[in-house]
Automatic annotation (TrEMBL):
Species annotation: Latimeria chalumnae
Family designation: Belongs to the NDRG family.
InterPro entries reported for this sequence: AB_hydrolase_fold, NDRG
UniProt lineage: Eukaryota, Metazoa, Chordata, Craniata, Vertebrata
Gene name of this polypeptide: NDRG4
Coiled coil: none
Protein name per UniProt: NDRG family member 4
Any single GO CC term annotated in Swiss-Prot or TrEMBL for this entry: cytosol
A single GO BP: cardiac muscle cell proliferation
Pfam families referenced in this protein's UniProt entry, alphabetically: Ndr
Record's keyword terms, sorted: Cytoplasm
Length: 348
């Protein structure tokens, strides 16, 4: 079952959809969508995937829609100030307190990943883990900002947003997925409200994070983090940069072959599998099916089962399947693991 709520926060109302009921001491899975989307457009494919539903049986799921982005949202009045990215992050404790959640595991995409990372930096005690898809930790420079402004003058808002969401290849091929999202972004989200969110995302500042030991008093994410990006996605550079600012001990880097700009939509099965391992690594044993990995039984904390070295992850998509079938056996030997960087790059 799911229930819709409007939650009062210091920076206005937030539209929130809650699914499921509390299970034991499990954290709540809290999602935050990308700019141009809302929780349905961003996450329905992923959360409706059969194996993902097996996982979410064990958790409450809380989908947060950014202000004014949900289906049927009324248009903001002229001159209304959209919350800054920092304020969007500062709205989330109100949601957590409103429902009495103990802690959350966040799943964010693009702008939503940025908001959740900022939230975890300000309120580390509320966050147990983060799955950050297509995160860009950098603010926009003036040149980027001007380019965005210019493209906004020459093309429609949905088309401008599509260049943020999809790879060049997907846009060039004008795939069915791109066509479908162009239509939905134009119809499911209020365009005036979307423009305000888009402008605010494009004036974001850098996430102030540094890998421990690189600068004095380095501040970074303290929780378990899984970074996800599709190969050739527009966000690839930003995600690699984010990886360099995180602690390799609690970070996993998942680079997905054949997934384009929206891996949670195009590869929900592979992302579900990775998410299951991520939760198991945090100590939540949630059996899905027989816990099988290509014929072998997978123990918990088995993100290592997909581990491969940094160079191997950059292989072409053609050789990925061969590498992957070996991943089960290769990591049986602790010696093999010794050669693998803590920050695992995984191509699925």
């Amino acid at each position: 079952w799911s229930k819709e709520h409007d939650v009062e926060t210091p920076y206005g109302l937030l539209h929130v959809v809650i699914r499921g009921s509390p299970k034991g001491n499990h954290p709540t899975i809290l999602t935050y969508h990308d700019v141009g989307l809302n929780h349905k457009l961003c996450f329905n494919t992923f959360f409706n995937f059969e194996d993902m539903q097996e996982i979410t049986k064990h958790f409450v799921v809380c989908h947060v829609d950014a202000p004014g982005q949900h289906s049927g949202a009324s248009q903001f009045p002229q001159g209304w100030l959209f919350p800054t990215m920092d304020q969007l992050a500062a709205m989330l404790p109100s949601v957590i307190q409103h429902f009495g959640f103990k802690s959350v595991v966040g799943i964010g995409v693009g702008a939503g990943a940025y908001v959740l990372a900022r939230f975890a930096l300000i309120f580390p005690d509320m966050v147990e883990g983060l799955v950050l898809i297509n995160i860009d930790p950098n603010g926009k420079g003036w040149i980027d900002w001007a380019a965005t402004k210019l493209s906004g003058l020459t093309s429609s808002l949905p088309d401008t947003v599509l260049t943020h969401l999809f790879s060049q290849e997907e846009l060039m091929n004008n795939t069915e997925l791109v066509q479908s999202y162009r239509q939905q972004i134009g119809s499911a989200v209020n365009q005036y409200n979307l423009q305000l969110f888009w402008n605010m995302y494009n004036s974001r500042r850098d996430l102030e994070m540094n890998r421990p030991g690189t600068v004095p008093n380095a501040k970074t994410l303290r929780c378990s983090v899984m970074l996800v990006v599709g190969d050739n996605a527009p966000a690839e550079e930003g995600v690699v940069e984010c990886n360099s600012k995180l602690d390799p001990i609690n970070t996993t880097f998942l680079k997905m072959a054949d997934s384009g700009g929206l891996p949670q939509v195009t590869q929900p099965g592979k992302l579900t599998e990775a998410f299951k391992y991520f939760l198991q690594g945090m100590g939540y044993n949630i059996g899905v099916g027989g816990e099988r990995c290509l014929g072998g039984i997978v123990p918990s904390a088995s993100m290592t089962r997909l581990a491969r070295s940094r160079t191997a992850s950059l292989t072409s998509a053609g050789s990925v399947d061969g590498n992957r079938s070996r991943a089960c056996t290769q990591s049986e030997s602790s010696e093999a693991m010794g050669h693998i960087n803590h920050t695992m790059e995984v191509s699925c």
